[in-house]
Design brief:
binds adenosine-5'-diphosphate; 14 helices; Tyrosyl-Transfer RNA Synthetase; three-stranded parallel β-sheet; 2 domains; 331 residues; 55% helix; globular; binds tryptophan; Rossmann fold; mainly alpha
Length: 331
């Protein structure tokens, strides 16, 4: 049995990218491994949410986790800020993280471009905080989408650096994990290759979306005027429609539209209607559970309290050992 850790920043509801990139693997892994799944609320402070939004978004992620099938008896579900040991380990890791390597991280460079007025130190040290989340439980595997690969590589660097510095094989080197052979990337509805809430709200379908919202968004998804030659290569927005269809529709349906495309007979309106109807069927059970759970504050709080208690056992043990290794010892 391996140790698994992963988390999602609380920025609102969970979309299909989060689900297929990360949560689907959480749900499967909880049966086979010791799993820690958390809500990365410290991380979300880089965008300066109001206290009310922060709290509301933590609730949303927790509800989505549970609605997606995470079982608080099987895996340890907690809120990152309920584990202040994480902040202490983050401090230690920051002492051996170099400004240059942090500045070269792709997600940091993106933020400089997209939010030049808020390039804070928390953004720069995002990878050390993420490494602290992971190695605090000595994780072996981290289920995440493809966009997190570089962060995982940094985590391995920080873990080995610590081991080398103190000459002890203390932290394992964790790997990014997905049940398919490859890490997943779910495309957006806006013609971009990644469904992403932080990049474009309109590119996303949420598990909590109601039928009418799903229909509206999919009918508006970017397409083009159609192929002009048989077996033409598909431009990205069209590949995206096929990828979304692959996720929610039957194999025959996908094949049918693929043939229509190859024979230049495709009508994107029909294809989108089909994706929308299949998507509605896919999301409906999630939505139902979300509606049931979201008002049960007492239960949700109980889940967080139970998770915090269990997660702190492993975190406190790691910090005790790490302090000792570093040299914070009795005189
Ligand atoms: P967003 O880009 O919407 O802000 P996050 O960065 O909060 O999403 O991602 C949370 C988790 O979901 C991460 O593990 C990430 O890899 C995964 N994820 C997000 N978007 C996608 C996507 N389009 N395809 C696959 N995985 C994704
Ligand atoms: N960086 C991740 C994201 O943007 C969230 C995250 C924070 C995380 N700490 C983590 C994921 C630890 C896996 C493990 O989605």
């Amino acid at each position: 049995m391996k140790t698994v850790v992963s988390g999602i920043r609380p920025t609102g509801n969970i979309h299909l990218g989060n689900y297929f990139g990360a949560i689907v693997n959480f749900v499967k892994m909880q049966h086979e491994h010791q799993c820690y799944f958390f809500i990365a609320d410290y991380h979300s402070l880089t965008t300066h949410p109001t206290p009310a939004d922060l709290n509301d978004n933590v609730r949303k992620v927790l509800v989505n986790y549970l609605a997606a099938g995470l079982d608080p008896e099987k895996s340890i579900l907690y809120r990152q800020s309920d584990l202040p040991e994480t902040a202490e380990l983050y401090l230690f890791l920051n002492m051996n993280a170099y400004i240059g390597e942090l500045q070269r991280v792709a997600s940091f460079k993106d933020k400089i471009r997209t939010q030049p007025n808020n390039v804070n130190a928390g953004l720069l040290t995002y990878p050390t905080l993420m490494a602290a989340d992971i190695i605090i439980h000595k994780a072996h595997m981290v289920p995440v989408g493809k966009d997190q690969e570089q962060h995982l590589e940094m985590t391995r660097n920080f873990a080995t650096r610590f081991n080398n510095m103190y000459q002890t094989p203390y932290f394992p080197e964790p790997i990014a994990f997905s049940f398919g052979e490859q890490l997943v990337k779910v495309p957006g509805l806006d013609g971009s290759t990644k469904m992403s809430k932080s990049e474009n709200e309109n590119s996303c379908i949420y598990l909590s979306d109601e039928a009418s919202a799903i229909r509206k968004k999919i009918m508006r998804a970017v397409s083009d005027s159609g192929p002009t030659e048989p077996n033409q290569e598909k431009p990205i927005p069209i590949q995206n429609l096929f990828s979304l269809m692959k996720i929610v529709s039957k194999e025959e349906t996908l094949q049918f539209f693929n043939e229509q495309y190859n024979e230049c007979k495709i009508r994107y309106g029909d294809m989108k209607k089909q994706i929308a109807e299949d998507m509605i069927v896919f999301c409906a059970p999630f939505r139902e559970r979300i509606l049931e759970l979201e008002s049960d504050t007492a239960y949700l709080q109980k889940v967080l309290d139970m998770g915090a208690e269990k997660a702190r056992i492993s975190a406190a043990q790691t910090l005790k050992e790490v302090r000792e290794i570093i040299g914070f010892r009795k005189l």
